[in-house]
Amino acid sequence: MAVSDEELMRQVQAGRHAAFETLVARYRPVLVRVAVSKLGDRALGEDAAQETLLAVFAARHTFNPRYSFRTWLWTILLHLCAQQWKRQQSSDRCGGVIDPQVADATANNAETALDALLRTERSDLLQRALLELPEPQADALRLRFFAGLTFDEVAAAMSSSVSGAKQRVKHGLERLAHRLRTLQGVEP
């Protein structure tokens, strides 16, 4: 049976820092995926994920194991991504949207080059549409579907009610579906 995140953090707080490696292995890939989606750049997303993990380790003594580690982690990531986004906007840098799974897709020998190209094109389309949503809706979708958080966890990470988190996801999905149909030329 897997050790809970909260128990691993207790171990880290007690000085057994190797337990933190388990948390890093557990969360780094999904942190990167969400950060890349939010920031639109693979390198910036990896940096944000790394900064998040460093911030968690640095603040390990402030973590209260009675509360959800996942919520704490995602709150930190969203905050750091927002800071990075502001820095990026103020310096007028425009990064291209990079699919966080392109490397995985092209590494799969069973997948043809056409399959990888189609997957990348669909991912780029999704990323473009997400960037056009209001930030609270886009973040709620990223947390719910890219990070796999429950509505309770999304609400806690975004400092909203559960009902508010559900509404953000619902309205975000509606807008996303409409925007994707428009981008694909299905709707005028």
UniProtKB/TrEMBL annotation:
Gene3D superfamilies noted in UniProt: 1.10.1740.10, Winged helix-like DNA-binding domain superfamily/Winged helix DNA-binding domain
InterPro entries associated with the record: RNA_pol_sigma-70-like (IPR039425), RNA_pol_sigma-70_dom (IPR014284), RNA_pol_sigma70_r2 (IPR007627), RNA_pol_sigma70_r4_t2 (IPR013249), RNA_pol_sigma_r2 (IPR013325), RNA_pol_sigma_r3/r4-like (IPR013324), WH-like_DNA-bd_sf (IPR036388)
Gene Ontology BP, a term: DNA-templated transcription initiation
Keyword Chloroplast annotated: no
Molecular function GO terms recorded: DNA binding; sigma factor activity
Domain RNA polymerase sigma factor 70 region 4 type: 124-176
Keyword Phosphoprotein: no
Keywords on record: DNA-binding, Sigma factor, Transcription, Transcription regulation
Signal sequence coordinates: none
Family membership noted in the UniProt record: Belongs to the sigma-70 factor family. ECF subfamily.
Name this polypeptide is given: RNA polymerase sigma factor
Natural source organism: Schlesneria paludicola
